[in-house]
Amino acid sequence: MSTRTSALDAVVFGVDVQSGDVRGDAPSYALVVYDGEDVSRDVVTHRKLRRLIDDEEPAIVATDNMYELAADKDQLIHFLGSLPTGTKLVQVTGAEQPEPLSRVAKRHGIPYGKEPMQEAEAAARLAAHSVGQEVSAFTDTTEVKVARGRSTGKGGWSEDRYTRRIHGSVKKRAREVESELEDANLAYEADVREAYGGYANAVFTVEAKPSDIPVSRSRSGDVRVEIERERRDGIEFRPLAKRRDHVVVGIDPGTTTAVAIVSLEGTVLDVWSSRTSDTADVIEWIVERGRPIIVAADVTPMPETVEKFRRSFDAAGWTPASDLPIDEKQHRTREHPYEDDHQRDALAAALFAVDDHEDQFDRIAAKLPPGVDRGEVTARVVAGEESVEAVLTDLEDDDTDDEDTSEHEPRELTEEEKRIKDLKRQVDRLQSHVETLEGRLEKRDDRIDELERELDAARREERKEVRRDREVNRLERKANRLERERDEAREDAETLEKKVDRMKALWKLDHSNFSDVSAEKEGLVPVKVVEKFTKGAIREADDQYGIAPGDVVYLRDASGAGRSTAELLADFEPRVILKDGGLSEIADEILFDEEIPVGPAGDVAMQEVDELAVAREDDVEAVIDDWHDRAAARRRDRKLEMVDRLISEHRAGDNEA
Fold it and tell me: How far apart are the C-alpha atoms of 167 and 204, rounded to whole Å?
């Protein structure tokens, strides 16, 4: 990815002294604001410049001389420490030994003029193209300190409670900071000083910049949080972008585009291929890795696509006398890794181009004096077709024309100027104090708003809890009711299952040949068992396994039945009733009148199966036959009694006559 700043990325401030001097009179600055497309210009004071930096938070503040913004090293460090966390100070002319701005601008094709506003614009454009050195006085280590926000002082009788509250607040906030650092996955070391009731302070040394730490400076009541970057021993310069040396580029176009980067010494720096990247992506990939002075192809003539890349870099072109054979490309690239044939072809083109220009590169290097950039001269000779002597002369002329144009020597201040400077510093301090107080008021107002929002949220949450509790209670009642219904349903199901089992057993008794009882027990009949000769027992037996017409009914206890009970049993029309115990006279009369056979259970051999029973058909028939015999005799006796009664009544009537 390109490291250039674009209109979509950030804003760059270009700064140059317009008048005055930072070491003496209050200077004014030519300020150019550049976003990659639009440019705005203004002349501002030092104070307004600082305010604009704080308000706009540009990505870069670019200058050709860092000491145009600070009088000495201490002030420069103070200036760097006051920059927003995302803002860098960049010296576009280099590090400890800067070059003239005109030379740097010319090298990178940036418009340049000697007016302060033109120099400020050149600095902004250079920094936007990642040219220059970042000026740093701090490491990437940050110290986060959580400490008391007020003195424990003398609190009288309540001093212990007051001190304990403050130290407890510090401990609570320290733990919150520690949790936030862990959530951000930041490496840190903690140094805690315990005190009565909590912590006196806690210092976290974090391996990150302040912008990467999810904790900000604050002061609220009992606790304050301070954030300070670790100072370096001195000023350090870091290139704004990686060094981009002059290179030779081999390109193999087609459905898959392959690119190889080779140094002027013939070292393979990188190889890449892609089926989806467009021309812009390929150019960006090349720009990130070097400045092409030769663009090479492995075929003749140079393909139009490769020619477009060559023109975009204003580089020299190279093609072989005839298309490179595959075996030669394989032999030339045998010591270098590549992933596909396209990368091999691009790599072969670049390596053969370096081989072809090797003698020329050596001759150029032999003519260069110490301290001259070999790549710059080689590029102008090979791509620009200039002579080595002409390029060297041009570079010397640049040195003569631009001698120390950006230097600003200090001068001795008069007493009046010193007094004015002291008063301005005092005004700055007072204004800074006013701004600090206003900031505290704003923070307190914000804190009040935050607490009110938290209170409203707590009230809403409390109302939600009440509604939630009500809903929970309702659901619990419903769950209990459903559990009761479930238990009842299970009991009903168990009862029904038992009834089904009994019905199945009865069905088997009614429809099987009783092979499961035993072979010798064929000719058995089912017997419906009624525990007592009562209405309840009869209905219970009917509910459990049903009493149908023609069934054999066994009364375990036949005593005590009345008329209605006997009539209820007679309504089922049983085939025969086997009984234990004696029947009441009324029950016996009703069953006899209904012609329902009744016999003693002892005359029948029965075998009980669970709640059911089976009896031999022969025994049952014998009981029925016996009852019929007894019934016939009983009928005869009734007739004889009736005849005797009639005769007696007739005789009694004659006597009276």
Answer: 17
Q: What are the distances in angstroms from CA 87 to CA 9, 14, 54, 209, 210? A: 13, 13, 9, 12, 12
Residue given tokens 């607040």 in the structure block: 169
Percent of the chain at pLDDT exceeding 90: 27
Rounded CA gap, 268 and 62, in Å? 34
Read off φ and ψ for residue 325, nearest 5 degrees.
Answer: -65, 155
Strand order in the sheet with 598-600: 598-600, 576-579, 552-557, 524-532, 612-616, 606-609
DSSP 609: E
What does the chain come to in residues? 657
3-class secondary structure for 388-433? HHHHHHHHHHHHHHCCCCCCCCCCCCCHHHHHHHHHHHHHHHHHHH
pLDDT in tens, 370-399: 767 777 888 888 877 778 787 777 777 655
Q: Work out the burial of residue 469: count CB atoms within 10 Å of its CB; fewer than 13 is exposed, 13-18 middle, 19 or more buried.
A: exposed
Q: Provide Rg for the chain, Cα atoms.
A: 56
* Percentage with pLDDT > 70 across the chain: 89
More confidently predicted of 638 and 551: 551
Is beta strand 188-195 parallel, antiparallel or unpaired with respect to 88-91?
Answer: unpaired
Would you say residue 3 has pLDDT above 60?
no
Half-sphere exposure of 244 (CA within 13 A, CB side): 22
Q: How far is CA 173 from CA 145, 168, 217, 332, 445, in A?
A: 11, 9, 12, 65, 20
Give the start-end residues of each E strand in 35-178: 39-45, 60-63, 88-91, 133-148
Sign of CA dihedral 411, 415, 420, 424: positive
